[in-house]
Structure formats: C-alpha cells, structure tokens
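Standup, Tuesday
Yesterday: got the pipeline producing structure tokens again.
Today: sanity-check two examples.
Blockers: none.

Example 1:
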Amino acid sequence: MIKRFERLEIATADLDDAGAVYSGNFGFSVRSVPGADEAVIAIGDAEIRLRADAAAAPLIAATGEGLAAIWLEADDVDAVATALDRAGLERRPVRREGGWRVLEVDPKAANQTPLFIFDRRP
C-alpha cells in the first residue's frame, strides 16, 4: 500500500541556523528553495525539508522547533483511506495539491505527528 518515504518536514524559526546544523554537523548539502522560506536536504530519493514559513510558526509556538510532518507515497490514496476507515482512524477528505492527491491522517493516529499520504494519480 505505502510504496516509499517521501520526506520529513522540520519546523524551524531560523532557516540559516537550521541549515548550518545539518551541513556543519552531518555534512549534508542544504539547498534553499527560491521564493520560499524553505530549504531542502536531498537524501537519496527522499528529503528533509526545513521550513520557516507561516505554517511552521504555530507549530513552533505550540511545541517548539522540530518534526512538523511525515510524507509517504502510496500507489492509491483511496485504498489507504479505505483501510484507515476500516481501522476506525480519523482522516481528512482526500484533496488535490499540485499533481498529487493527498490524504491527511489525524495526528492522534500517528503518535501526534502530522502524517500525509499521497499518490500521483490524475
């Protein structure tokens, strides 16, 4: 059902500082995203995305800097949604975001971590 890990999103108040931590401590190449308060660290075909945008601010205020979301790719989001429904787990309706269909799982079902599952179906 889930075919691969896509990315982790890390909320940070200071993008430059966070980038320096990942490059200085771990030797990662950190690439800024033009026109966005984000930076990307590619690791194989997955990534860590550092976010200092408006969406990160409430997370930081509530819990501090750190893990903001996990993104997983599935073959079929509808099948995942059906499995979650059968298990009695809360979820939001499937939405379209760019070229992806995205299913947002209630954080209570994922150890209080925002979990997004997507597919690339039209």
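Example 2:
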Amino acid sequence: MSTLQIVLLVILAVLIAAVVALYFIGKRLQKRQDEQQAQIQANKQTVSLLVIDKKRLKLKEAGLPDEVVKSTPWYARRGKLPIVRVKAGPQFVNMVCDEAIFDTIPVKKTIKAEVSGMYIVSARDAKGKKLYSDQPPKKKGWWGRTIDKLQEKAGAKPVK
C-alpha cells in the first residue's frame, strides 16, 4: 500500500470513531433534555405577570440568585440568556424566558405566563389570546438581500 492510502485509511478511521462518539453523546444529551422538559411540564403554573423590561444578559449580570449561577456549568455562563424583569404580585423578579417566545412578550403589559420556577415556558396576553410580536421585523443584512435577489431571479420566490 502506498503512503496516501494509509493516510486516507487513518483519517477515515478517525472520522468513523468521531461520528460514533458524537452519536452516543448526542443520545445521552437528548435523554437528559427530555427528562428536564418532563420536569418543567410537571411543575409549571399559570401566573399573571406585569412585564417591566426584557433583555439578553450574561448570567452574572442578570441578577439571578447565587444558587442558579453556581449550578450552571462553566461553559454556559459565558452565553447570554433572555431575561425578563417582571412584577409578580408585590415582588419584582428577574426570570429566564424560553428563547422561542422571548420576542413575542410585550413590554409594560400584563401577561398570563406558564412559569416553572424562574423559567417562563409560555405566555399569553391578559385575556388569554396568543401573543404576537409588536416589533417590526428585523432588517436583512447584505447577505440576506443578496440571497433574496438571487432567488427572485431563479424563480424560487415571487417577484415583488
């Protein structure tokens, strides 16, 4: 066998080992996430909240209790979380929000939210209707506009 074939076989073996390892790690992480979602669903309660402010903040800047910061893994502390400052009854509380509904939560309005601990799972307006974002859609960057133009020329999108 030539040197090139040996090098290609070694690279192929390493890639196969990496794929197998990622498969088992992903399977374990998926199982852990399913358990956490089941626990969140079991503990959620409907609460009326007055939303004061919402921001994406780092964990240390969010004003969450020290227990939450200590129990978070070191690699997750650097990322930003969707934090919503709410008034729940007489208390002002910082809560972590689900990423999927963060943009739809209105500021300075009362909402009915399903809360599990300090985590907002879902939200509706005070009358129980589904929330829609009252923010204008984000402007597309240069790359997004270029893709849209190319799709229009190719016939994949209707022409404006």
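Quick observation on example 2: The beta strands are 45-58, 80-88, 91-97, 110-116, 119-125. The radius of gyration is 23 Å.
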